[in-house]
Amino acid sequence: MASSTILSRKMIKLLSPTPPSLRHHNLSFMDCINLPQYSPFAFFYPKPENYNKNQISQILENSLSKVLSSYYPFAGQIKDNNTYVDCDDTGAEYLNVKINCSMSEILNNPCNDVADVVFQQDLPWCSALNRSPVVVQLSHFDCGGIAVSACVSHKIADGYSLFKFFNDWGTTARHVDFKPSPQFNASTFFPLMDGGSNIMSIKFSPESQRLVSRMYNFSSSNLTRLKNSITGIQNPTRVELATALIHKCGATASMENNLGLFKPSLMSQVINLRPLIPLDTIGNATCVYSTIAMTENEIELSNYVAQIQKVKQQVRNELKNLDMNQIAPYTLEKMKGIVDMMEKDIFDIYLSSSLCNFGLYNKTNFGWGRPIKITHPKCPMKKCIMLFDDPSEEGIDVLITLPEDEMSIFQKDKELLEFASPTVESIK
Fold this sequence. Notes:
Blueprint (H helix, E strand, L loop, with lengths): L3 E9 L11 E3 L2 H4 L5 E8 L7 H18 L6 E3 L4 E3 L5 E8 L3 H5 L26 E8 L4 E8 L5 H16 L11 H4 L21 E8 L1 H10 L8 H20 L7 E8 L13 E8 L7 H20 L3 H21 L3 E7 L5 H4 L9 E3 L8 E6 L6 E8 H7 L3 H6 L1 E2 L6
Parallel strand pairs: 6-7, 10-12, 12-14
Antiparallel strand pairs: 1-6, 2-5, 3-8, 3-13, 4-5, 7-8, 9-15, 9-16, 10-11, 14-15
Helix pairs in contact: 2-4, 7-8, 7-11
Protein name: Acylsugar acyltransferase 3
Organism: Solanum pinnatisectum
GO molecular function, one term: acyltransferase activity
């Protein structure tokens, strides 16, 4: 296993101090019901030409200082039982790290667990309370390749907000005169309300075995073949297709591991509430919905894709017909329903989230080109599914975390391997 050595650690301060009038940033209801854990992402780049290590770090530090002036709550401290951010310009933690292996040893490893090395040890998924909401690590590999990883508190950003931040950071690094325009006004759309403070206090029992993560790629051509293999479905999206197949193969592995007995399966997915609220609004603004398979027949692709489409469209229609002040209560009820089912242990629970269609590969360019891989460390919760655009931005990379015994069955699934391949990169 690759090891790392910290070369330097510092706090990156804001280039422009936060005005006193903006120092108190109220968290929205959506922010408050989220766990205070870090959301971690890593961007891998081949050896930057015409830049040495000091220049690379200086570009990242200077641009981070500048972009934080616009994203000032990201450099503050979460206070008062997680209801507001004291935008006191504490800054973001920044680490410069040496990794004692080549990048290919990380990206060519079929087990995604090894990607954890580009994050500060034990930081991903842990509590972001009492420390900076943003922690960045620049990792230098023996081959000259680099990784830029960031952990951002889920209390202040959902996936959309996170990647708007990355986009603005990259654009700031490339263009001196660029000024981001994030709006920290989510609390005006989703003010605090009763009934949600304990929604995420559900306790998960310790796993009896190790969890394992694997990344699979659905190429554009394989997604087309997968689409053509199912009938009776009108214009399924690539996310719907990939999600349904991963879920089916996961449920099949679970059944085989359970002596052939099928346990009803529930998959929770996420909808972005933008543009019901403005696209520039930073914070948490998502709604969850769930699809259920009570029998083995219901996990078949045509049946499950049809259900995903139906439920998702139903939720979108209901959201469109709500007044703005009704959206938060509606979202709370959806979340409560899923949490209640998780606590009753009736279903095999899958948690799925898509970060596709954000244009991440083109937008996370700090001046030395696009990343060759964007990834996520292993999720501490079993049966978690994350979907990303692949480098072509036409295919999909899927990161799935399963118990080790189920993963050993899952990764041999013939239908999975017909349409998806374990993701590795060829890096010189």
